[in-house]
Design goal:
It is a single chain. The chain has helices spanning 11-43, 251-260, 262-284; strands at 51-55, 60-61, 64-65, 75-78, 81-84, 92-95, 100-102, 117-126, 132-133, 135-138, 144-146, 149-150, 156-161, 167-173, 182-189, 194-199, 202-208, 223-225, 237-245. The longest helix has 33 residues, at 11-43. Strands 1, 5, 6, 8, 15, 16, 17 and 19 form an eight-stranded antiparallel sheet that branches. The protein has a seven-stranded antiparallel sheet with strand order 2-3-4-7-18-10-11, with no helix packed on it. The two termini are 50 Å apart. It has two domains: 10-44; 51-269, Jelly Rolls (Sandwich), CATH 2.60.120.200. The chain is an alpha+beta fold. It contains three helices and 19 strands. Helix 1 (11-43) runs antiparallel to helix 3 (262-284) and helix 2 (251-260) packs across helix 3 (262-284).
């Protein structure tokens, strides 16, 4: 019988080839598993560790507006809040005067309450020049801890307070306009000791922190979109892409969100995090 010489490979070489194949498969599985772990932990549920609330108003579910940060703080409609096709990005919410979204403030997790910094960003299209609250929260000790508003005296307001009612800053600036889309962005960083109000992406007013204390640490008496807790300053008009952060956004970040939407901004962040992940993988080889 003739020996089959079509595959003249020794047993030792065969074992070496199989070992290399095993190592390649094992390393590939390691990469896939590592990336899956990183991505899952970073964004499977929570879109961004600093994004507390996000209403794009694309999804209404009965008497509820679906909240998109991944934290599950859906807004319960009180009064007449309806979906509009005239949003800045897709759909928007139309608030009839005296209507609001109830966020069940006492049950917001303590770790989700902004204390070291806060940013409130939204597109608004108000129907009149009057006092209108974009968002409002009140602490258990009666502190009105935040006031992002369009004002009846013709400007906009951005305010944070510490526990006990101590004002950290109170900015009133810009020119309130009715029946047109205006981008509102109030930011504050306790570490930097600075608050800034941006209207349509431009800095219209800033103030250094008057005190170094944190923002009041609970929303024990409630949190609402579109109406103060004491049923004052009703928002009347359209609102789109409301997003609230527990840090002070930069001017660049405010402008990305304004021009391209929160989703686009988060996609840019995710791309950067993926690049960092690949960098760590290469460095560990």
């Amino acid at each position: 019988m003739k020996q089959d010489l079509r595959f003249p490979i020794s047993t030792a070489k065969l074992r070496l080839h199989l070992a290399c194949l095993f190592l390649i498969c094992a390393f590939s599985l390691h990469i896939v598993g590592f990336l899956g772990f990183e991505i899952q932990n970073a964004s499977a549920q929570i879109l961004d560790p600093d994004l507390v609330l996000y209403f794009d108003y694309e999804d209404f579910d009965g008497d509820t507006v679906v909240e998109k940060s991944g934290r599950g703080y859906d807004g319960a409609i009180q009064g007449k809040v309806t979906q509009s096709n005239d949003g800045k990005f897709g759909k928007a919410a139309h608030f009839a005067a005296g209507s609001f979204l109830d966020l069940d403030g006492p049950n917001i997790k303590p770790e989700d309450i902004p204390t070291e910094g806060m940013s409130i960003v939204a597109w608004i299209n108000v129907e009149a020049i009057s006092d209108m609250a974009i968002f409002n929260a009140r602490a258990a000790d009666n502190t009105w801890l935040v006031h992002p508003e369009a004002r009846g005296d013709g400007n906009y307001r951005w305010l944070n307070r510490s526990a006990g009612g101590t004002t950290i800053f109170d900015i009133r600036a810009g020119k309130n306009k009715a029946n047109e889309w205006v981008h509102y962005a109030g930011t504050f960083s306790r570490a930097e000791g600075l608050a800034v109000l941006y209207i349509n992406g431009s800095n219209v007013g800033e103030e250094k922190a008057r005190v170094g204390t944190p923002i009041a640490p609970d929303w024990g008496q409630g949190a609402r979109v579109g109406f103060n807790i004491d049923d004052a300053r009703p928002f009347n008009g359209l609102m789109d892409d409301l997003n609230i952060w527990k840090r002070g956004l930069t001017e660049e970040e405010v402008n990305i969100i304004m021009n391209d939407s929160v989703d686009a901004f988060l996609a840019v962040e995710a791309h950067g995090k993926l690049a960092m992940t690949w960098g760590r993988l290469k460095a560990s080889q």
